[in-house]
Amino acid sequence: MFDYKLLAALAAVVEQAGFERAAQVLGLSQSAVSQRIKLLEARIGQPVLVRATPPAPTEIGRRLLNHVQQVRLLERDVQAQVPALDEGGVPERLRIALNADSLATWWATAVGEFCARNRLLLELLVEDQDVGLKRMRAGDVAACVCATDRPVAGARSQALGAMRYRALASPAFIARHFPRGVTPAALARVPGIVFGPDDLLQHRYLAELGVEGGFVHHLCPSSEGFVRLTLGGLGWGLMPEQQVLNELARGELVELIAERPVDVPLYWHHWRNGGELLERLTGHLRKAAGECLVPPGQAVG
Description:
The protein is of the alpha/beta class. It has helices at residues 4-15, 19-26, 30-44, 59-81, 100-104, 107-118, 133-137, 171-177, 184-187, 201-208, 223-231, 245-249, 275-292, and strands at residues 49-50, 56-57, 94-98, 122-126, 143-146, 155-169, 192-194, 217-219, 237-240, 254-255, 262-271. Helices cover 44% and strands 18% of the residues.
């Protein structure tokens, strides 16, 4: 039998990114948390954590974290069916990884009613759409929104639709850098804006225009900040069409190459044995996302 106090200590250390904050969440001393991790490792005969900053799970640690995530969801189902088992504490938050652009545009509209109706709390971990699945593989989250369709072992993947991006810049930026008009070669020589080191959307856009290799760019790990920098004339970048409809209508942002959108497919990944709540959220999200995103059959680029 598992000792879930030991597994809870492991989950807290990884989720809180350290022993000190894990101890605060669990209401224990830091020494007590450390002892529980050591006892867990002694029982299974191998390390469950890499003692780094922040601590990271080993392969066996990831398997245990995945198990903990699923048990939490199943426990919530049982508490809903047998209210006497509910101890009245703060409910567990459902940990979900998703990309910043989804959070800044369609996500709240898609899940707001469901969360209110089911008294569901969320803990959202923001990752680039190309790397969010790493969080599931590491056992950090119970579900994620990402651009990869292939699920990790023990999980399912559902197509949600696509986010449509357009390459935009301010009129002042275009006048300053492209007096003779925008060309792919010229675009690669002026400052761009990239969300972070894992964001390759602008690179792929240039490659589709026939421009290979790197290009000069700012790094801005904020979806809202990305728009503000572009409006301020610091660079050009690919932005979700949903996010900048008003700026486009007012002429504050202009598409660099007309009718050259890029559609990024998004997939919902969730644990196969995640319980009734996660299944119902999945069904709700598939329907709601269909009203917010570009349907898969209409995606381009």
